[in-house]
Amino acid sequence: xxxxxxxxxxxxxxxxxxxxxNKELKAKKQASSSGSSATxxxxxxxxxxxxxxxxxxxxxxxxxxxxxxKGLRDWLQPSIYQKYPLYASALDxxxxxxxxxxxxxxxxxxxxGAGSFAFLTTDGDKVYFYRNGGTAGSDEDNSTPxxxxxxxxxxxxxNSRDAYQTIMNIAENAEVND
Length: 178
Prior knowledge:
This protein is of the alpha+beta class and 178 residues long. 44% of the residues lie in helices and 19% in strands. The protein is built from four helices and six strands.
């Protein structure tokens, strides 16, 4: 009788172990499938920008998105570029009022007209965001950057906001003049 009980206990123990194992397998399978779908969803939706692979239009679109979504003064909100395509043009460097960077590039919405506008300068990986006051006699100091960052940080910002398609749409419709 003692032998039968111990055999029965061993069988019950095996069944319980099997049930736990099956539950664990189901949990692992669910975690694995939800993890893999999250990974595939992430891979599908999160195409990552890398500054080394961004052409000029894409860089300028990403910079405009960055500055506009952060609310920097005179930088347009990214949604504006759906109605007024991004227009970028090199500014005359002589007499330019900016403390940091070089090769100023004005960015505006095409067709928005005169007035104050935003521009950026670069220095290697560094990017400096400025505004240029359009009001005569203004005593504002526009030579100091509103913000400074790097192309890498801009790419990270865009990537963290899943804004790849927005940037590509802005870049595709952009007009960039040297």
